[in-house]
Amino acid sequence: MSMTDPVADFLTRIRNAIGAHKNSVDCPRSRLKERMAEILRKEGYIAAVSTRDEHYQGVISMTLRYDNNNVNAISGLRRISRPGQRKYVPAKEVPIVRNGLGIAIISTSRGVVTDREARKLGVGGEVLCEVW
Description:
With 132 residues, this protein is of the alpha+beta class. It has helices at residues 6-19, 31-42, 115-121; strands spanning 24-28, 46-52, 59-64, 77-79, 88-89, 103-108, 111-114, 125-131.
C-alpha cells in the first residue's frame, strides 16, 4: 500500500511513541526523514538517531529524550505543508515558532534546515513542520 504523506507518517509515529511513553521509535528510511531526525537530534528533541538496512528501504531508529520526571522533550509536533496544500515562504517570512522556543523545519534550495538556519542563510522554502 502506498503512503501519500510520508512526513506526516514520520511525525505521527513520533507523536504516538511519546503518547505511549516508548523509549524508541522506528520508521521507514528516506533522505528527507533522515535529515529531519538529525535536525531533531541536533536541536535536543531526541537523544539519538541510527539507521539500519532492513527490508528494501531501511529503517531509521530514534531514541526519544525524557527528563527525570518522565516528561518528553517534545511538547508538540504539527505538519504545516501538506500534499494537498503546500506552504512556501520567502526568506523574509520564515516563521518563528512559539517566540523562538520551538523550531520550524524548512526544505530549502540549500537542503533541509531549521528556521534559524534559513534566516541566517537568507533563504525561504517549504515549511514542512513545527516542533516545540
